Amino acid sequence: GAVVSQHPSWVICKSGTSVKIECRSLDFQATTMFWYRQFPKQSLMLMATSNEGSKATYEQGVEKDKFLINHASLTLSTLTVTSAHPEDSSFYICRAAVMSEQYFGPGTRLTVT
Amino acid sequence: GENVEQHPSTLSVQEGDSAVIKCTYSDSASNYFPWYKQELGKRPQLIIDIRSNVGEKKDQRIAVTLNKTAKHFSLHITETQPEDSAVYFCAASKLGTSYDKVIFGPGTSLSVIP
Questions:
Q1: Do A46 and B103 touch (CB under 8 A)?
Q2: Would you tell me how many other CB atoms lie within 10 Å of the CB of residue B56?
Q3: Closest CA to A36 of A79, A94, A90
Q4: Mutate to test the interface with B, among A31, A43, A47 (most CBs of B within 10 A)
C-alpha cells in the first residue's frame, strides 16, 4: 500500500518554542492532507484539512495562528505548533488522501516541557 | 457536522468469545464507515470498512453490519485472540472525493483475556 511518513517521530521542546512536523506521501500525490491530534486514551480529533496550494480549513476550536499548516506540494504538508505549551503535548497524525484512498502517517509524539 | 458515538468504551472478553462494538452516526449523508485498530503508540490501521449500499461485510473473523435507517453500524469479532487486544475506532465519512473528513468515534478499548 501507499506509504506516508512523518518527521520527526518524537520531539521534546521547551515551552514557548515552535515545532515543525512534516508529513510526506512517498509514492503518491496527495491532493488533500488531514491533520489529527490524539491525547492519551482519547480519540483522533480532526484539526484541519489542507489542499495543495490553498489555505487550510480549520475545525472549530482550533487556533489557526497557533497551528500553522502549509501544503506546498502534492507530497508534503507541514504542521507548525507555534509558542508551544505543555497542553499541546499530544500525538499528531497526518492522513494523506487522493480521491477515495487515504493513508495515515505513523504519527509524531510531541512533548512540551 | 457529523457526530459519531461508540459503545462500550471498554470491553473485556475471554479468548475465543465474540466481541461486539456498536456505533451511531448523525449525518444521514455519510456513506462510508471504516473501522480502525490502534495499538499503543502506533497509527490507526484500517481493518474493515463498509459503504452505505451494503448491509453487511465479512472478512475472516471480522464482520461489520450497517443499518442506514437507524444510523447504526457494528463491528463483530469472532473467536477473539489475545492479539486482538487494542483500541478500536469506528468512523464515518462522505466518501467521494479526497476532501472528505473522516470523523472518529471515541474508541473502545478491547482486552482479550487468555
A1: yes
A2: 11
A3: A94
A4: A43
C-alpha cell at position A86: 505543555
Reference A17, options A71, A80, A60; nearest CA is A80
| pLDDT tens digits, B36-49 | 999 988 889 999 99
Question: Would you say residue A107 has pLDDT above 80?
Answer: yes
Q: Is the dihedral of CA A70, B95, B4, A5 positive or negative?
A: negative
Residue of B nearest to A30 (CA): B98
> Which pLDDT belongs to residue A31?
85
Q: Is the pLDDT of residue A1 over 70?
A: no
Q: Which residues pair with A28 in a beta bridge?
A: none
Q: By the 8 A CB rule, do B88 and B107 touch?
A: yes
Sequence-distant (6+) residues with CB within 8 A of B55 are B65, B66, B67
pLDDT value at A91 more than 70: yes
Nearest to B98 among A44, A99, A104 (CB): A99
CB of A79 closer than 8 Å to CB of A92: yes
Q: How far apart are CA B22 and CA A29, in angstroms?
A: 35
